[in-house]
C-alpha cells in the first residue's frame, strides 16, 4: 500500500476503492460460448500411470514425472515437472 | 474479446530446463504451481521447500517469498498461487493542489496448504511484503451443525475473479459434516469451493456439489463431482478447475456461483475410469494455464502437458430476425453473418425446406447471402431455412421462417413456366443486399434485379422485369418482357431463340445466333449485334443498326442492316425468305434507310419497305487469303411500297439505289405498290402514280452484271442504257418492258 512521503509529494489521503476489473466479473454472461474446449495436442512421453506402474514418465527432455503445474505465454510454455523437481521450458512450432 | 492465437503453435518442442532436487536457490522440492509476476518473472510454488521461488524466464534466480513456518509471511507446503492487480485511487496534495491519481498494485495469494490458510503478499519497494492471511472464515453462517466449516482446511489453489476469492479446499477427507443443499451430508471425499469477498476476506458462499443440483440435474453433473479438485484458473469469468480423482479425470467449467456450464476431457462423470493416454483423456489432471484461447493442462498421471483450445462458437448477428414475409414471385434477399470471438474463419451453409426456389451462397468467409423467389402457388407456405455457421471446431445454428403471401395483384403479365434452379448470384458492390445478376438453369417467371444471366436447358423461358441487362448462355429462349421506362440491353452467349420486349431496347448482343427480336410496332430497337452466328429477324418500328460479324443476318426488319463479313440471308429457315421490313405508324409508312453488306452477299432475302428504300449497298470483302468475296444480290427482292399484312392498295415507294459490288442475280428490284386483292379499281388513286415508284440507280461491279432478274420502276434510272443484263432480265419502266 502507498504510505509516507516521496520527495515533495505528500500523500494526504489514501482511499482503497476495490479490485481492478482487469478480469470480467464472475457470473456475467459473455458473448459467444467459451465452454467448448477442443483437444489440440500434447507434449510428453505419455507413459501413463496404472496401478502396477511406477509413477514416472522419465526425466528426459520429452518426459515428465507427475508434472502438476503449467504456465504459458505467447512464446513459451513452462512445465512445473513436480517429481523431477525442475521447470521445463517448451516452445511453439 | 480475445484475439486469435498464432496459427502456427499447434506443436510444442523442448527448449530447456532448470532446477534439480534440493533446497538451493535454483533447486526445487516437489514444485506444484506457478504464476507470472508483474514483470513477467516466474513465481514458482516450491512446495516441499515451503516457499515461492522467483526466477526469470531463463531460470535465473531473483528471490523468494515465504519460508517454512506458520508466522506472518511464512509458508508450510504451499501448493497454489494466484495473482491480482489492484487499482488504488489516492488524493495527492502537491504544492497546495489536490490531485486524484491511480496506482496499480500487484498482489499474489498463496494457498498455504500446510498452515490451512491463504496468504496474500504485495510487491513493495523493498520486495514482496506480507499483507494478510485468512484461515478462519469470518462471518460464516451459523447453521448449528457445521463442524469447523468456518475453517479452511488444506487449500490447494486460490484465484481472484472480480471482487471474489475462490479457494479449492481439499484437506477434508470426509464431508460427513456437510449440512445443507450445497454441502450434502455424506458426500464422502467431496472437496469444497470457498468464495470470499476479496475486500475483507469474509464469507460469501461455499459448496461441494454443483449449484445446478439444487434445482435440476444438469447432464449428470450431480453427486460427488468435486472430488480431487486441484488447479483453478479464471477464464472469461468462468472457473476452470481439475477434478483429479480417479473417478473424474477431467476439467470442469462453472460460473462464479458454482453452476456447471461445461467440461472437457473425455472421462465420464461418476464412472471409475482408468487413466488413459488417449488424446483428450486425463489421468490425475492438476494445474492449468491459459494463453488467449489456448489452455494448457498438466496431465500429471500421464506425464504430459495437453494443449486445448477454448473455442468461441460463432454467434449469428445477421439476419436480425428469424421471420420473413415475402410475396410470390418477389425477391427475398438478406445477409447472413456470424461473429466469432476468437477469430476463426467461418463457413456457412443453409438448407431450405421444402426445397424451394432459393439458394444460399457463401460469398466469402465474412458473410453469406441468401435469396429466394417463391413460385406461384407457394402462398401460405412457411419455408424453414436452417442456417449454420461453423468455425471448424463447432457450429451455430439459426432457424428462419419465410412466410409466403399471394402474388402482388398488380404484378405484370408473366410468362408461364416453372422456376428452375439458380446457379449463381451476384450482388452489387454496395453490399446492400440487392441482387444485380442471376444465373440459373430452367425457367424463371419474374426477376426484379438488374442483370439476369441465363444458362441451361433448351426450353428455358425468361420473363424479366426491370432488368437492365439480360444475359443468356446455352440454347435458351429469352423472353425479355421489360416494362420499365429505362432503356435496356439484352446480352446472350450462344443462342437466343427469341427476345421480346415491351420497352425500347438499346441493344441486343448475341455471341451466337439470335432467332428473332420482337418489339411492339411503336417501340424502337437500338441495335442488334450478332457475333459468329445468325439473326433470324427483328421487328420494330425503327432499328438503328443490325450488325452481323462472321455470321448471317436472316430475317432483319429494320431501317439499316449492316453485315461485316457475313450474309444477309433467308437460308436459315428452309423454304423461307429473309426479310428486311420497316413498319410505319402513319399512312406514308416507314422507310429503310440502308441495307449494307460488306464482304457478304444478300441472298434469299426480302428487303421490303412500306415507304422508301433509300439504299441497298453491297461491298466486296476479302477472305482470309485476301481473295475478294461477297458483294452480290442473289435470289432476293428489294421492293419499296409493299406491306403484306394488308389487302388494301398501297402507295408505291421509291428505291434510291441498289449497289452491288459484284452481280445482281435472280433478284427483283421493284418500286411498285401492291394493288391489293381488288387492284386500284373503284378507288380514287391514280393507278399509274400510285402503283409505281422510282428506282434512281442500279449499280454493279466492274466484273458484274444483272442476270435473270426483274426491275420495275416508274421511270428509267439514269444508267438504264448502260446496264449490262442478260436476256432473261426483264426491265419494266412505267408499265412497259424495256
Fold and architecture overview:
The complex is a heterodimer of chains A (93) and B (738). Chain A is mainly β. Chain A is built from no helices and six strands. Chain A has strands at 5-6, 9-19, 36-44, 69-72, 76-81, 86-92. Chain B has 738 residues and is mostly beta strands. Chain B has three domains: 136-310, TolB, C-terminal domain (Neuraminidase, 6 Propeller); 311-490, Sandwich (Immunoglobulin-like); 504-737. Helices cover 1% and strands 46% of the residues of chain B. Chain B contains one helix and 60 strands. In chain B, the strands form twelve sheets. Chain B has a 13-stranded mixed β-sheet, with no helix packed on it. A seven-stranded parallel β-sheet of chain B has the order 38-41-43-46-51-54-57, with no helix packed on it. Chain B has a seven-stranded mixed β-sheet with strand order 44-47-52-55-58-59-60, with no helix packed on it. About 13% of the residues of chain B have low confidence. Chains A and B meet through strand 2, strand 3, strand 4, strand 5 and strand 6 of A and strand 1, strand 2, strand 3, strand 6 and strand 7 of B.
Radius of gyration of chain A: 22 Å
What's the Cα radius of gyration of chain B?
46 Å
- The residue fraction in helices of chain A comes out at under 10%
**Number of DSSP strand runs of chain A:** 6
How many domains of chain B? The number is 3
**Helical amount among residues of chain B, as a percent range?**
under 10%
Terminal-residue CA separation of chain A:
42 Å
| Largest β-sheet summary of chain A | 3 strands, antiparallel
Which word captures the global form of chain A?
A: globular
Order of strands in the sheet with the most strands of chain B? 29-30-31-32-33-35-37-40-42-45-48-53-56
User: How far is the first residue's CA from the last residue's CA of chain B?
Assistant: 99 Å
Largest sheet of chain B: 13 strands, mixed
Q: For this entry, what is the oligomeric state of its chains?
A: heterodimer
Considering residues with a beta carbon less than 8 A from a beta carbon on another chain, report the largest interface and each chain's count: A-B, 80 and 116 residues
- Secondary-structure-based class of chain B equals mainly beta
Number of strands of chain B: 60
Residue stretches of chain A low in confidence (pLDDT < 50, at least 5 long) are 1-32
Task: Supply the number of helical segments of chain A.
Answer: 0
Structural class by helix and strand composition of chain A: mainly beta
Runs of chain B in which pLDDT lies below 50 for 5 or more consecutive residues are: 215-219, 268-273, 411-425, 427-435, 441-450, 455-468, 479-487, 554-560, 569-589
The share of residues in extended strands of chain A comes to: 35-45%
